[in-house]
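Convert to structure. Protein one:
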Amino acid sequence: MTPISAEQTATIERAIARVEAAIGVQIVAAIVPRSDSYPEVPWRAFALGASLAGLVALFVDVARPDWLTAQGLLIQTLAILAGGAVAGLAATRIAPFARLFLGAQRASDEARQCAESLFLARELFATPRRDAVLVMVSEFEHRVVIVPDVYCKGKVTSAEWESVVAKMTPLLRASRVADAFTAGLDAVQALLAGKGFTPSAEARNVLPDALLREERR
């Protein structure tokens, strides 16, 4: 997970409190390292690495047919397996490389599922007015998911929530996680204020303003 300093965390939490005070809904900001373990990614990388190593071995065979001995074939086989193993290992350690083997739709689906699961697990539906809004960042996938409770549904469209996501995603891809949250919270405040959301006597701050940090999945 990208380190977020204590000062950056405090800035995000102050922004949460400011937005809640301005629009009267409960904002929850959360960050997860990744939304799924994606066991298929290392195997896809292994297949690519082995294929490339096999292609190199083929070119060598064509260029130097005199190397086609039993010992040469053994070395080629080991080299092909080693190429796959190196690529597979790299996919478990190097996030940008691993993302090459993860489809965009799969990443989006898993991030959405993770956010909805987090919303339920943390019982964010338990606010008196059902007015919680979860803003979750999934770092590995470079995805932002916003899950609003029923109070906001019908008042804010999916496209309008996506406009908030669009402000956060470029900053997240640049590894500016704290800036992404700040920009997103500012956008949420502007969006809901424009919809006429204001504090009311019914609104109570029942959810902590602390930034949620989920463990690696």
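Protein two, convert as well:
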Amino acid sequence: MANRYGLVDVVGQAVDRHITAAGLSGDPLRPAVAAYRRVAHQLRWGYFDAAQRSLTRARDGITDVPGAVADAVRVQLALRQSVVAARAGDRSLADELVADARGRATAAALPEAPYPNVIASVLNAEMHWMAVAMEASDGTTALDRARQVVLPGEYADRPNRIAHYWLDLARAWLLHGNRDRCVDALVRARAISPEHVRYNPSLHETIATLAAQDARRTDSLAGLARWAGVRA
């Protein structure tokens, strides 16, 4: 909740307490889940190396834990690590990790939400497949992949996740140079989960980029008009 409403200082405290509590829980998977949550905080600040180390340790720490729930956590860790790799500029590792997660999610019926925000569904893996291309600044590939993602007809089950997908898709359209489709995707995200979208850094960054582009276009047009002696 703190992350959703942009309370970054509270997020840091909550993450630290989560990690401490996870180590005392007796659940061998809880520390891995706590590490996954910490990485969201590290990603916000661009600590990619630290995030990769956290996720690698988390995955290594549950290698021998059996069962479908452990497989679900492994899928989520691989998905998060694929995003970290893409943002850090390692596209080959990002695609390798997301392919591994897609394969695991497809191969077996995994519990989709054994822990809060751990989603081991095929749909989540497919959405990450699109997102890693976008995070690698490959808008064309991201849009090609998006055409293969089949969203559910109803958003009630996971509106936050679906809304985040539309934010990612908006960024892909922005990379592709289609401002109108970018704005349409942002509006769609807001309609699905406004409380999630409003304080999301992705929304703010995309809007700021659109505004800067519009300002440059306006300035360029004004300069050309002055040069040509055109008066409105």
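The domain at 1-150 is CATH 1.25.40.10 (Serine Threonine Protein Phosphatase 5, Tetratricopeptide repeat). Residues 89 and 136 are 6 Å apart (CA to CA).
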